[in-house]
Design a protein that fits this description.
Blueprint lengths: L1 E8 L3 H12 L4 E4 L15 E2 H6 L7 E4 L1 E5 L5 E4 L6 E4 L1 H15 L2 E3 L7 E4 L2 E4 L3 E8 L6 H5 L8 E10 L8 E5 L10 E5 L4 E8 L6 H7 L10 E11 L12 E3 L15 H21 L4 H8 L4 H13 L2 H7 L3 H12 L6
Parallel strand pairs: 1-2, 1-11, 2-8, 5-13, 11-17
Antiparallel strand pairs: 3-7, 4-7, 5-6, 9-10, 10-11, 12-15, 12-16, 13-14, 14-15
Helix pairs in contact: 1-3, 1-6
Bound molecules: flavin-adenine dinucleotide (FAD).
């Protein structure tokens, strides 16, 4: 049996940040990731909010700053939103994952690729994984459909957005610093469509509240008079599930703790989960290290106090889904109260709660 203090399942943003922080604090950690190499088959658009960019130093060459927002109504009327100090970063996500993986390995974490989690069980005070690895704590950072959660009878995500994205070269953007967002409840119910300058590409996508499915071809067709797709070529496609129902219950049984998308800690309003994955990954690592080294409070108790519940954001999501039909969005787009509310959603310092 290969023993460590902590086993993490999943080498996404949550797992890698947690592994690096644990290793930096002298906690032995083994991370199992089913992908062959870091950065393979990414599903995320990879937009990083300003708060996350300030909390975690990310290499400049893997990111691109986006400062403006152009928000379209369903009839393609738009409003330009600006902030003097807020920004988003788009990312070369596959290479960013390689960077985060390298950082965790450099810190001393044992990261095993091509190693899927298959099964796990409790044995006394230890958790046994795949009959081969044992640890005091198991962290399930294995994404929105967590097998760890299922095996240990923890809560699972039940509400999702489904996102789809295509990456283009040769797609000219009038404002290369703008995040173009499209409200349209028939194409993107409960969320939006987007066109955003990425690192060397333009990213075009949309997400819908399930059970509806995003139709990227229909979205591109709708955009044909707004963007010039005539010389644009698709270089990559991606997509996946985004939990939007808030923190799962229970997220822990004491020895097994869920993190990131597995725990449902994704903003139900913006569908952003990268900052929460990284931030709470680091907090969970600190709680485990303090508990193991200094006998501090149990990490499950710490996390139950700090994990976000998103009550207000869930209410706002439901209101947007059911009380904002296209005709109302078309009227609202030029209204100063709506513009102010939209600026708040995009540019106000985002709380993680
Ligand atoms: C289309 C789309 C666009 C998005 N855009 C944004 C955005 O722009 N900004 C933002 O903040 N958020 C965005 N999100 C959400 C964000 O990507 C997630 O919240 C974030 O990636 C969560 O990180 P994570 O580490 O918890 O999970 P994941 O990134 O899903 O990582 C889970 C890891 O676990 C591994 N794994 C799963 N099962 C096993 C197993 N059995 N054994 C071993 N390994 C396993 C997977 O291979 C994966 O590497 C988007 C999501 C989608 C789907």
């Amino acid at each position: 049996m290969k023993n460590s203090d902590v086993i993490i399942i999943g080498g996404g943003f949550a797992g890698l940040l947690c592994a690096k922080s644990l290793a930096l604090q002298g906690v032995s950690v083994t991370l199992l990731e089913r992908k062959h190499t870091p950065g393979m088959g990414m599903h995320t658009t990879g937009i990083i909010v300003g708060e996350c960019a300030r909390e975690f130093a990310l290499p400049d060459h893997l990111t691109r700053k986006v400062t403006d927002v152009r928000l379209y109504s369903p009839s393609l009327r738009y409003v330009d939103l600006k902030s003097s100090d807020y920004f988003f970063l788009t990312t070369d996500t596959p290479n960013l994952m390689r960077h985060l993986s390298d950082e965790a390995i450099k810190a001393g974490a044992n990261i095993l690729y091509d190693t899927p989690y298959e099964h796990g069980k409790m044995s006394g005070n230890e958790v046994i994984v795949n009959g081969e690895y044992s640890a005091r704590f198991l962290i399930g950072a294995d994404g929105p459909r967590s097998k760890v959660a299922g095996d240990f009878k923890l809560g699972q995500n039940t509400e999702f957005l489904l996102g789809a994205e295509a990456e283009y070269t040769g797609l000219p953007l009038e404002n290369p610093n703008a995040f173009y967002c499209f409200l349209d409840q028939s194409l993107a119910w409960g969320y939006l469509g987007w066109v955003i300058p990425g690192v060397g590409v333009a990213q075009v996508g949309l997400a819908q509240r399930m059970p509806k499915r995003p139709d990227i071809d229909a979205f591109v067709k709708r955009m044909k008079d707004t963007f010039d797709f005539s010389n644009a070529t698709v270089t990559a496609r991606r997509g996946g599930l985004i939990p939007c129902g808030g923190l799962v219950k229970p997220f822990t049984n004491g020895s097994v703790i869920l993190l990131g998308d597995s725990a449902g800690i994704v903003s139900p309003l913006t569908a952003g989960g990268i900052h929460t994955a990284m931030h709470y990954g680091k907090l969970l690592a600190e709680a485990i290290a303090s508990h193991l080294h200094h006998g501090a409070e149990h990490p499950a108790i710490v996390m139950s106090r700090v994990y976000p519940r998103f009550y207000a954001k869930q209410l706002l999501r439901k209101t947007f889904e059911y009380a904002a039909p296209n005709w109302l969005l078309d009227i609202a787009i030029n209204n100063s109260v709506f513009k102010c509310a939209a600026s708040t959603v995009f540019f106000k310092e985002k709380t993680l709660r």
